[in-house]
Amino acid sequence: MKVLIIEDEPLAAEKLAAYLLRHQPDVHIIAQLSSVAQVVDFFSNNTQAASLELIFSDVELTDGQVFTALEQLDLPCPVLFTTAYDQYWMQVFQYQAVDYLLKPFSYPRFAEAMLNFAQLKHKLQQASPVAETRYKKRFLLRKGQSLSILPVADIGLIRAANGVLLATDKHNTVHILTESHLGEIEGQLDPSEFFRLNRSDIVHISTILQVEPYNKESVAVILSGEKAPIITSKTRTAAFRKWLNQ
């Protein structure tokens, strides 16, 4: 299993690595980072970032809170948070948290968190093929005191902006969805039709007009009805190219 440790206290990082090796001797610790800047740089320039299976992360780092980095990323895997502060336990679940370990934690508590991760991984692997084909067909919209229906087939772009989800239909009309997180609906959409380009945008294949190089690890996606191109996240670019060519 490939993991990343984000921890600014050397002794805490050493203890965590020891627990990891005790629990799973074949674990591969890809890197140990101690600052927000290092986290951003790692996900921008390290090709192994996309292959991570689990991230262990403290909250308070040498140059600020890890959330500053995570909110810029399209995380490739769950995060197991390890911190001495209990006030972040609700906030962390915005960042694919699988558990929240309060320091100092014992090995039995660590093993319990790893069991939670293993159970989550097993559920995803054992998901029913029938359930996977039951993709969402419509969204219920609230407009004042009334309700209306937005068919998924009419949606060209779903974007997370300012704490809400916005769906642009094929007539370029923007609708506010009742769902609050992009990850909440990503798995409900047909993956042959929709693709998540980055942390904020899911596009429908029919709206893509052109794809152009942007930099070494990202591309610019030009959509019908959108003035500005959408840039793929570095961790999603390879999968996007494969999706286009399926």
Describe the structure.
The chain has seven helices and 17 strands. With 246 residues, the protein is an alpha/beta fold. The strands form five sheets. Strands 2-1-3-6-7 form a five-stranded parallel beta sheet. β13 and β14 (201-204) form a beta hairpin. The mean pLDDT is 88.
Strand order of the largest sheet: 2-1-3-6-7
Task: Say what oligomer this is.
Answer: single chain
Uncertain stretches of 5 or more adjacent residues = none
How much beta, percentage-wise?
A: 25-35%
Secondary-structure element series: EHEHEEEHEEHHEEEEEHEEEEEH
Number of helices: 7
Radius of gyration over C-alpha positions, nearest whole angstrom: 20 Å
Question: Which sheet architecture does the biggest sheet show?
Answer: 5 strands, parallel
Q: What is the structural class?
A: alpha/beta
The shape, in one word, is: globular
Number of strands: 17
Helix content: 25-40%
